[in-house]
TrEMBL record:
Species, as recorded: Glycine soja (Wild soybean)
Pfam families recorded: peroxidase (PF00141)
Protein name from the UniProt record: Peroxidase
An example Gene Ontology molecular-function term: metal ion binding
Binding site for Ca(2+) 2: 201, 252, 255, 260
Function: Removal of H(2)O(2), oxidation of toxic reductants, biosynthesis and degradation of lignin, suberization, auxin catabolism, response to environmental stresses such as wounding, pathogen attack and oxidative stress. These functions might be dependent on each isozyme/isoform in each plant tissue.
């Protein structure tokens, strides 16, 4: 009886702690300190996006990596820890799991931060974590996706170590059970998983991430049977066996520069680039969701926004847990 009571109170304390952090996030957080922060960030993001479209998927992926990765001992999350750099390359972004992040994502946040700090009254008032969250919303909207209110009030983390990053990001060969377990550990549902995967509608991937599916599936020198044969041949032409590992191709071959529900239509046709993508359609637990999002873009957008809101609350720093960095790449 006593042990049950202790567990109950411990869980209640944890719940109150989590709710307390979320309660400090609010849409109008900078109303008095930097009231025009959203328009300032959007203007900087728009300018960057005009220079290169890679800005969109790169910024979105940076946000996901920042929020989703946890390190041992210290809880990280949406705290811009992924942006910290060290001279000896021992920070979080130097872990192999993060090496494929495109520089345009980092550059977008750095330029938006500079734009915010150049406005009188706003200097050192807005965190890099919040700027990343806003920039992510903006690239999605500018690419044709939904716009939504971003909760603000995150502080920047002070801890970022290469050695301590756990493998808390989905692997391209993960099966649904592995994906679901990973997302559930962050409080995200199966619907959140399928919706967030839709971000691959503007993503890109390196040939090495799916080469086994088109050349040596299950070590039988065959093609993954869940792949559309015509699509598989197209991939072989673009990604020959000895291709430059730096070569990247669009994850959505139909509308690669538009944030839409084409990703799910591709899955229905066996055109999911990664095994972890196609698994969403081949598995009966998520097939209905894929079919829903493929036929109803409004349903997809609503679920995606809901999932992004939940993602943006993971590991938030408030109070004395963090700081507002003067430079997004280094602690104050």
């Amino acid at each position: 009886m006593c042990s049950h009571s202790l567990i109950f109170h411990a869980n209640l304390f944890l719940l109150l702690l989590i709710v307390g952090c979320h309660a400090q996030l609010r849409v109008d957080y900078y109303k008095n300190t930097c009231p025009n922060v959203e328009s300032i960030v959007r203007s900087a993001v728009e300018k960057k996006l005009q220079q290169t479209f890679v800005t969109a998927p790169a910024t979105l992926r940076l946000f996901f990596h920042d929020c989703f990765v946890r390190v041992r001992i210290v809880t990280t999350g949406c705290d811009a820890s992924v942006m910290l750099a060290t001279r000896n390359n021992t920070s979080e972004k130097d872990n192999p799991i993060n090496l494929s992040l495109a520089g345009d994502g980092f550059d977008t946040v750095i330029k938006a931060k500079a734009a915010v700090d150049s406005v009188p009254g706003c200097q050192n008032k807005v965190s890099c974590a919040d700027i990343l969250a806003l920039a992510t919303r903006d690239v999605i909207a500018l690419a044709g996706g939904p716009s939504y209110a971003v909760e603000l009030g995150r502080l920047d983390g002070r801890v970022s170590t290469k050695a301590s990053v756990r493998h808390h990001l989905p692997h391209p060969e993960f099966k649904l059970e592995q994906l679901n377990q990973m997302f559930a550990s962050h409080g995200l549902t199966l619907t959140d998983l399928v919706a967030l995967s839709g971000a691959h509608t503007i993503g890109f991937s390196h040939c090495s991430q799916f080469s086994k599916r088109i050349y040596n599936f299950r070590r039988r020198k065959s093609i993954d049977h869940t792949l559309n044969p015509t699509y598989a041949k197209q991939l072989q032409q673009v990604c020959p066996k000895n291709v430059d590992p730096r070569l990247a191709i669009d994850m959505d071959p139909v509308t690669p520069r538009t944030f839409d529900n084409q990703y799910y239509k591709n899955l229905q046709q066996g055109r999911g680039l990664l095994a972890s993508d196609q698994a969403l359609f081949t598995h009966k637990r998520t097939r209905d969701l894929v079919n829903l999002f493929a036929s109803n873009n409004t349903a997809f957008e609503a679920s995606f926004v809901s999932a992004m809101m939940k993602l943006g609350r993971i590991g938030v720093k408030t109070g004395n847990q963090g700081e507002i960095r003067h430079d997004c790449t280094m602690i104050n």
